[in-house]
Design goal:
elongated; alpha+beta; 371 residues; three-stranded mixed β-sheet; HSP40/DNAj peptide-binding domain; binds zinc ion; 9 helices; single chain; four-stranded mixed β-sheet; Helix Hairpins
Length: 371
């Protein structure tokens, strides 16, 4: 026959919770393994005391035990003889130190701001230039609407965790060697919820997919991180929500290259004739096309710019430029007509040796003469 739990604690069946608590404390002091090193019987007694207190120290469990049914029905009968607190006992060794170092003033951890959420999204180059509004879809946890995040069924409220006294941590060991660790009963929150909310099961959070509209400012650069305040995870116990950060990836344009200085660059091929004679050429802009002047004698790689036609500046004031890099295209093949024309050109330019200056600088000693 298993020992009566009241006997273990040396209290009457009519003892108040306070009396049970006091009796438990006194016994713990007496039989604590640290005070009785290498005393197996003290250790066993200590385990017995803790197991008894785990039940009687908790009003609900005590009622259950008194009625002789429920989860403690098999407690006495089922346990092996002489070892009433063996496998079948309601508490493991981890419970042994519960409530020993019940510190005063424990209020549990404070509210916890919700986590920030991160997401990224890709937009077209045009949208980046003009600005746009995006809808981002993110899975997130929200404050449960039924219990407003408390986790308790409406009409009930969370209670201080009986195991850690609301502290959220419990100490293992004593003196120099005590270690604090999160309370396993309340997972460090310091609270237990006697009647969990039926919607969220006591977590205070519901998981859902949320859609948010995010305004993307015109001129946004690739890799820009946009903060949407308060749209992160819900805070715990009434704390503010985190923020949502949306990282914008801008698809490259087949035409415009974004420069670090806030301008755009476009490579514009021009013909040899355009480079030599000059003229106006049609070039792409963000809103269509425009014509720009190419001066006579334009060199390969020369830059022409259209001011204020580039992306909006980050400060919202004005726009950058578009720089047009003019690339002279040398034909790889010539028609007969073109060859004749080039021959004529060469004839007309006879005497203009483009290397004269180079050779002069190299010095005239021993330069090869043809013929
Ligand atoms: Zn606790
Ligand atoms: Zn809820």
């Amino acid at each position: 026959m298993a020992k009566d739990l009241y006997e273990v604690l040396g209290v009457s069946k009519k003892a108040s919770q306070e009396e049970i608590k006091k009796a438990h404390r006194k016994l713990v002091r007496q039989y604590h393994p640290d005070r009785n090193p290498d005393d197996k019987s003290a250790e066993d007694r200590f385990k017995e005391i803790q197991a008894a207190y785990d039940v009687l120290g908790d009003e609900e469990k005590r009622k259950e035990y008194d009625s002789g049914g429920g989860m403690f029905g098999g407690f006495g009968q089922g346990a092996p003889q002489g070892n009433p607190f063996g496998q079948g006992a309601p508490s493991g060794f981890g419970d042994i130190f519960s409530t020993i170092f019940n510190r005063s003033g424990g209020e549990g951890p404070g509210p916890e701001r919700g986590r920030d959420l991160e997401t990224d999204t890709r937009i077209s180059f045009d949208d980046a230039m003009n600005g746009t509004q995006l809808t981002v879809t993110i899975p997130k946890s929200e404050r449960c609407p039924t219990c407003s995040g408390s986790g308790a069924e409406p009409g009930t409220s969370p209670e201080a965790c009986p195991r850690c006294g609301g502290r959220g941590v419990e100490a293992q060991g004593q003196g120099f060697f005590s270690i604090s660790q999160p309370c396993p009963q309340c997972q460090g929150t310091g609270q237990i919820i006697p009647s969990p909310c039926h919607t969220c099961g006591g977590s205070g959070l519901t998981h859902q997919t949320k859609r948010y509209k995010v305004n993307i400012p015109a001129g946004v650069k690739d890799g820009t991180r946009i903060r949407v305040a308060g749209k992160g995870e819900a805070g715990v116990r009434g704390a503010p929500s985190g923020d949502l950060f949306v990282t914008i990836q801008v698809s490259p344009s087949p035409v415009f290259k974004r420069l670090d200085d806030g301008n755009l660059e476009v490579e514009v091929p021009i013909s040899v004739a355009e480079a030599m004679r000059g003229g106006t050429v049609e070039v792409p802009t963000l809103s269509g096309t425009k014509r720009i002047r190419v001066g006579a004698g334009t060199q390969n790689g020369a830059i022409q710019r259209l001011r204020g036609e580039g992306p909006p500046n980050a400060n919202g004031k004005g726009r950058g430029d578009i720089r047009y890099r003019l690339n002279v295209v040398i034909p790889r093949e010539l028609t007969d007509d073109q060859r004749r024309a080039v021959d004529q050109l060469a004839e007309a330019m006879n005497g203009d040796d483009p290397r004269a200056d180079l050779l002069r600088r190299a010095g005239s000693k021993g330069t090869a003469k043809d013929g």
